[in-house]
Amino acid sequence: MLLIKCPYCNEVRHEEEYAYLDEAFIFRPENMDAITDQELSDYLYNRSNPRGIIFEQWQHTVGCRKIFIVKRDTTNNKIYESYKLNEKIKSAINIPQKQECYL
Amino acid sequence: MKEQQINRLEINNNVNNNIVNIINKNKPIRFKFNNKQYIGYEGDTLASALLANNITLVGRSYKYGRYRGIVTAGVEEPNAIVELESGGYYVPNIKATEVYLYNNLEAKSATGRPYLQYDFKYALRFLNKFLSAGFYYKTFKWPSKFWLFYEKLLRSAAGLSKAPDTIDNETYEHQNHFYDVVIIGGGISGLQAAYKLAKQGHKICILEQDKYLGGNYHLADFDINSEDNNFSNHIIDINNIIISLKKLSNVNIYTRTTAYALHDNNLVKAQQNLTLDISINDRKNTKTSKILPSKILHSIYAKQVVLATGAIERILAFKNNDLPNIMLASAVSSYIVKHSVVPGRNIVLFTNNDSGYNLISNLQYLLNNKQVNLTIVDVRDNINNNLKEKIKNYNIKLLLGYTIVSAYGRDKVKSLKIQKISQKPNKNFTSVQKWELLEKNFTISADLVAIAGGWNPVIHLGCHSGDKPIWSDELLTFVLNNNNNRVSVGSAAGYYTTEDCLLSVNKVLSNKLNNNLINSINIVNFFRTPGSYNKQFIDMQNDVTANDINIAIDENFTNIEHIKRYTALGFGTDQGKIGNITGVAVCSEILNKPIKDISTTTFRPAYTPVTFGTLAGDKVKDNFDLERYTPIHQWHKEHNALFEVVGQWQRAWYYPKSNESFIDAVNREAMAARTSVAMIDASTLGKIDIQGPDAREFLNRVLPNSWSKIKTNACRYYIFMHDDGMVFDDGVTACLGDNHFYMMTTTSNAAASFNKLEKLLQVDWPNLKVYLTSVTDHWSTTAVVGRKSRKVLQKLCHDIDFSNDAFPFMQVRHGSINNIDIMVMRISFSGELAYEVNVQSNYGKYIWQEIYNAGQEFNITPYGTEVLHVLRAEKGYPIIGQDTDGSVSGADLGMSWMFAKKKAYSYLGKRAHKLDFLTMQNRKQYVGLISLDKKSQIPEGSQIIVNTKSKKSIGHVTSSYYSPILGYPIALALIENGFNNMGDTVYAFSHKCNLIAAEICSTVFYDKQGEMQNVS
Prior knowledge:
The complex is a heterodimer of chains A (103) and B (1016).
Chain A lengths: L2 E4 L4 E4 L4 E5 L13 H8 L8 E7 L7 E7 L5 E6 L4 H4 L11
Antiparallel strand pairs in A: 1-2, 3-4, 4-5, 5-6
Chain B lengths: L23 E10 L2 E7 L3 H7 L6 E2 L6 E2 L12 E4 L6 E5 L9 E5 L25 H7 L5 H11 L14 E13 L3 H12 L4 E4 L24 H16 L3 E4 L2 E7 L3 E7 L6 H5 L10 E13 L3 E3 L12 E3 H11 L6 E6 L6 H11 L4 E6 L6 H8 L3 E5 L1 E8 L3 E11 L11 E11 L2 E5 L2 E3 L2 H5 L5 E3 L4 E3 L6 E3 L9 H14 L25 E3 L4 E2 H9 L5 H8 L12 H12 L3 H4 L13 H5 L16 H6 L3 E5 L2 E6 L7 H14 L2 E4 L4 E6 L3 H8 L12 E7 L5 E11 L2 E6 L4 H15 L6 E4 L4 E7 L3 H8 L15 E6 L2 E6 L8 E7 L3 H11 L6 E2 L2 H10 L41 H4 L4 E8 L11 E3 L9 E9 L4 E9 L8 E5 L5 E7 L15
Parallel strand pairs in B: 1-7, 8-9, 8-13, 9-10, 13-26, 15-22, 16-17, 16-22, 17-18, 31-41
Antiparallel strand pairs in B: 1-2, 3-4, 5-6, 5-7, 11-12, 12-13, 14-23, 19-20, 20-21, 24-25, 27-28, 29-30, 31-37, 32-35, 32-36, 33-34, 34-35, 37-40, 38-39, 39-40, 42-45, 42-47, 43-44, 43-46, 44-45, 46-47
Helix pairs in contact in B: 4-5, 4-11, 7-8, 12-14, 18-23
């Protein structure tokens, strides 16, 4: 069970109040018609699945319904921080390079 | 009745009924075991009361039906499995050692069939050879046909108590807590840690699985009966600590509460038992006592966890070491000190370390009065002088360098074969056992054997969140490293004496360091008597012997996890708490590999069994799932409707009249809609209000059809695809204003559609100015269906012109009925002329009733979801989720006509429709099917083949109904390349596997020109 802080409500609440949506920083390509099949499949299916730090999209579904970003360690489920989507977080935080999948 | 308790000590002592001795001899309690009456005292466990009454046989073993008695005094008990009470208070598979007596308790052995005394399995004991490890798996292989015969036999022989067959009378509850520190274990280490931390102002709680605090404190080296012993000061100390802890407001103490799991981020899950010591009468009597939940599931979030979980003594293996009255030394001590019960008079202590010698102090009084004989069999050649001094004072026979080779007896141990033993040097691996038997041997008599095989710290909880146990060659056991958020103290960290425990608490709490472990009990690496592995029991609950481990390794299962699963070592309700490490040591001996390289099996929750009721809590019966009702629900109930659950909604299914059958009711309702007028409650459809200057652009991006030019008061059908091109939902969206749309989704996908739209707006298109509001519950919808629907509404609503020209198909009009605002949509899910009347929810039932009354002259018929499905199937309208699954694209569903070609934005699913996978020839496509004889109904889910000989399915039937208006059955199906094979004959399987020949046809079976929805 996780305790997650909603950066909009500014409260630490129980995991049951939230819904996991997807890995963070995956946006719908602007030029959808022009992308290759591989790029489409990367957008739809391929996720980094790292052993260690991951950034994830969560939604405060039974709260403010805002979507935000959570930094979590997949090895011990430790949650470090939450970020608002409208903060320019992509440059502000150190996103790990695409890691190799552990298959 | 008192005389019955022949093993109860008739001694007076000044420590009666305190932390050490917990029985109250002034309060006798009657109880029944296997239908016989006995008497025990308040403070007795079922196990101690049985031993007091000299009941040594409490169960039969799982595989061989061997006689089994009580081995331990705690949750580690493998043998004394009982069931309590019956009916709604029945408790299966509980350990006699954890049940405290209450008035008129009724317990039965969980094993022993047909009777405990006469178990049929015991008659098969000569077959032991064939029932060794893996025999179960081997019965599958050879001769494989015999399995059908074995199965019945094995299934009836296996298992413990029967599962409950009536509804549980007791209730359960869930609670959440937040603490700075959670201390697991209320023994001396836990109490000491609690005391220190509470003084520092932390908010703490103590979880103790037993009813009494103090843990294994009674195992300390003292005599229960002496008037003035050195430890009375300690007792007072501990009592004082408990008293002062109870006074502190920042400390909560939960007894009878087992922490059974420690999850990530220090989430402790604990089961608290509230009613297990209350008599059934008191539990039933709600007047005299408040109603307690039977158990509470505590979810405790802790910043810091202190594991003061103590240690569990382990067994030593020798032949027939499973005979009744062969117990752990700590258990013997426990029964003597806590309950004044001594289960035997001719006692043999079998030990490989110093801790067993504490038994001498516990027996001091009895030894002095010559009430018991004690023989000590120690495998070590020499012991230290302190112990020798201690023994000198009594008449104790000490056998150093000896081992027990075998025990004899039938339903109780009678004698032991003792043999000289010596240790072979093994310089390479200090933890691998290397002993050999010498010639000298003799037999001694015994009626109670106390085994002191060393201690296993309870590290289970620490391992639950992934930490690996570490083997200590010094202590000969597994221990855990501390980390920032979790520390172990006391015996759980490998400190076994009172002084060491208290010292470890102080050290760990002040600097959190891992201390050096010292072998304070001088244990040696002896785990089993060398020689034959035969009948040396390692796991008593699963009848696993050293020989079974040998067989498993012989058959090349060399990993401990494989050995566990092949032999069943460490399974069951006790999870091998007393035998697992001994088992690992046996593996080490056979494989000649140090124990640290073998390691142990993975510890997983739950530490002790948790009943399903606890996990369910109050989410049972009416609370099991939410039920949603439409505003018209009451009317449906009053009109005899049967209900169907759709999502969480209770929807009217059909409305049978008096004795009408399902088929008759459905046909009647369907014919009414097709020939006259009918009505259905459509309030459950999801409704999303979409507003904002970019609302049009938003819909253009999400949906495949164009929304740029749709005018106010017009509606459009849509399908909602994901970016993978697969259909996810469908519905109708109405344009209520330039910047205002009203989207109707399916009932079951309403929430999912809303979530998806929200995610697109927040994550992908944050610049679009669009607001979404879920208004599903705000509107109530009555659909009036049939050629006479116009006439019904004209009677009620006078401010809307219902004529075909003024109010054409796919349009919205606003008006009123009796001054109540209504929004009418002329849309149709049946192919008939139809209007959907939307009204603010509070008026929903009123408007429904008004329409029903007005329709009486046309015999208006309410219909439910079954006819809704029949009518839509006759027109080929798909139900998303029934006719589609996650693999049906918009094109497969025949919706390509909807895809806008000129839209600038690449809407969801457009790109995916260019993938080779979605454009290939043999995709399964949505088509109709009619059986050639026009009589046979093809079952839903039926697989379809090309010709009668084919063995490859080319698709399956998704919907199948009898159409009353057509007079024959129809079906919808997904068939490979179906669009190009119209008119072909294919074959589908009936329930009885007969082939039904059918023709592929259009999905529109009725009114192919679509004239009915435009009747004037």
